[in-house]
Amino acid sequence: MARIHTDQLLLRHFSPADEADWARVVLTNPVTMRALPAGRPAPRARAAAILADFADHWRLHGHGLWAVALAASGELIGHAGLHRVDGASRVELMVALCPPYGRSDMPQQAAQAALRHGFEVAQLPEVIAVVLPANRESRKLWRRLGMKPRGRVHLYDQRLPLFTLRRGDFVTGDERYQLDLAEKLS
Questions:
Q1: Can you tell me the mean pLDDT for 108-134?
Q2: Is the entire prediction scored with pTM above 0.90?
Q3: 3-180 to CATH, choices 3.60.21.10, 3.40.630.30, 1.10.260.40, 2.40.30.270
């Protein structure tokens, strides 16, 4: 399992100790959840099961969603990474950071690191991203990352704008990216 250090962030695997913080900053946070497929906060009681699903996804596919923490303090601010969708045939880039971090350059840092891991380590041929109605800012982020609009796709019971990026089109950028493969999968 990998840990990734960027200029401001640490992307690491979730641990059971993250459950309460992740529930607070993502799962039960109305601002953060508005930009995710559910569209509204979920019960805190679902956090353990969702985090277990995240861990299972890593074990099954070799990539998944990371806990995103501030590098300076270790404070958990959300999640980001790559998740299989659409009957597991496609891999979606997902980023969810709580306010005020969601409106900074941190979503781009997290997304760039996740893409780099997906293309360089997991050797994925392509990654997709969608634009949910309540999260139009993501369209700008996907374009900044070099993703191209490709029509619409049916996901999350909606027809959503689709963006794609192929491995050969990925540009790493000049952000700090330090990959530590020493972390073990539990």
A1: 93
A2: yes
A3: 3.40.630.30
